[in-house]
Amino acid sequence: MSVAELKTLERDYAMPTYVRNPVQFVRGSGARLWDADGNEYLDFLAGISVLNVGHCHPRVVEAVREQVGRLSHVSNLYYTEPAMKLSAALSESSLGGKVFLCNSGAEANEAAIKLARRARPGGNIVVLEGAFHGRTYGALSATPQETKQAPFAPLVPGFVVVPKDPGALFDAVEPGTAAVLLEPIQGETGIHVLSDELLVAAREACDRTGAALIFDEIQTGMGRTGTLWAYEQTEVVPDAITSAKALGGGLPIGALITGQRLADALHPGDHGSTFAGGPVVASAALVALELCSDQELLARVRVAGARLAAGLASLPYVAAVRGRGLMLAIDIDQDPGHRLDAAELARRALLEQRLVVNATGPATIRLEPPLIVSDDELDEAVARLVALAP
User: Fold this and answer.
1) I want to staple 329 with a disulfide (CB 3.0 to 4.6 A). Which of 17, 191, 204, 256 is the partner?
2) Cβ neighbours around 386 below 10 Å, total
């Protein structure tokens, strides 16, 4: 079908919750995409940090094909080997506690909120300005953005919003606080790396009061920053982390992973999901987790991130580059002579240069290519962005 025909179907049958670009992608491989007309694109968004292992990685494809032909679903009333193996692999790769599998990042954060409240009934959850934790009600209540929250008030009570200031965060955590929930790098609001001082203050406050420190690693995890989990590059070990996005190698899955202290906080019947940890997605996730745990790949991410950051900094319209590994953002110089809007720049990059990026604000472009991206592809992306200079 043509894009025009798809637009008609969308107009008549799909709820208008997305602003889509006028491109229909039909095939992907590695860091490349192809549209319905056969045009090739360089993908520097990776499905919003989902395709860390690249599009259609052959090992992921093989695992999915083999599993879906043998058993696709039975529910969590029974055992399946992929789900139990994935739980073990996630625990052993991180905090060493226990794992709740679910279907998305928002669901993982919902599970984390319930975990914290089960461990500390009635306690508040402290969250940071600029955070994004999802769009379901609990996750949305933890996302202090007026434009996202206001249309759906009243929200879930018990969330305390603090600025990204170590002292303010420390003071906000009280003896009855259930948890501090934060992203080590805030992704959806423009790739803002939280300072080590802020993370240490959060850890010390939680240790002082018994609150749980929960890291939302939905976008930062699975090797995106150059270690399997972003917390590994900090001075802090959280009590729990949430994962999703790249965990499924392109399929929808999420996970809440605890350390030992919170491993048994949730009891039978406290939480559940019909599809969570199904054998097909769990099989894909086992492969994706293995691939993203490879130390050579992780070292390569750190080198590639530095190369890309240097290239982005050389762009004539870029005022700042920030991020870690292959989780980067550029701020566009607001000099009136440049006259560049981030959304328009991202649209032109897609339609004129066939480069996939996205805008996270009026002056910010986010770049998150697959971790398997080559040096030539990094340089090619920078060259395509150069071509957009005014």
Assistant:
1) 191
2) 14
Distances (CA, A) of 183 to 59, 180, 199: 30, 10, 10
Q: Contact 210/121 with Cβ under 8 angstroms?
A: no
Residue 132 catalytic? yes
Domain boundaries, the chain: 66-292
What radius of gyration, in Å, describes the C-alpha atoms of the chain? 21
Q: Could you give the 3-state DSSP secondary structure of residue 180?
A: strand
Whether pTM > 0.70 for this model: the answer is yes
Report yes or no: 124 and 109 within 8 Å, Cβ to Cβ.
no
Evaluate if residue 337 carries a pLDDT over 70: no
Q: Residue 66 belongs to what H/E stretch?
A: helix 58-68
* Cα-based angle 314, 319, 322 (whole degrees, multiple of 5): 85
The CATH-assigned architecture of domain 66-292 is 3-Layer(aba) Sandwich (3.40)
245 is catalytic: yes
Structure tokens at 76: 């969590």
Choosing from 98, 215, 245, 331, the catalytic residue is 245
216-237 pLDDT, tens per residue?
999 999 999 999 999 999 999 9
pLDDT in tens, 76-116: 999 999 999 999 999 999 999 999 999 999 999 999 999 99
Catalytic status, residue 216: yes
- Containing 192, the helix (H) or strand (E) segment is strand 192-193
Nearest-angstrom CA–CA distance, 41 and 25 = 9
CA quadruple 349, 354, 356, 362: dihedral, nearest 10 = 10
Residues 321, 363: contact at Cβ < 8 Å?
no
Strand partners, 128: 162
Q: How confident is the model at residue 342 (pLDDT cuts 50, 70, 90)?
A: very high
Residue among 44, 170, 216, 331 flagged as catalytic: 216
Q: Kindly report the CA angle at 15 between 13 and 16, in degrees rounded to 5?
A: 115
Tokens of residue 336, six digits: 């009136």
Peptide bond into 154 cis (omega under 30): yes
For residues 145 and 189, give the distance between their C-alpha atoms in angstroms, rounded to a whole number.
10
C-alpha distances (whole Å) from 130 to each of 106, 160, 317 are 16, 13, 25
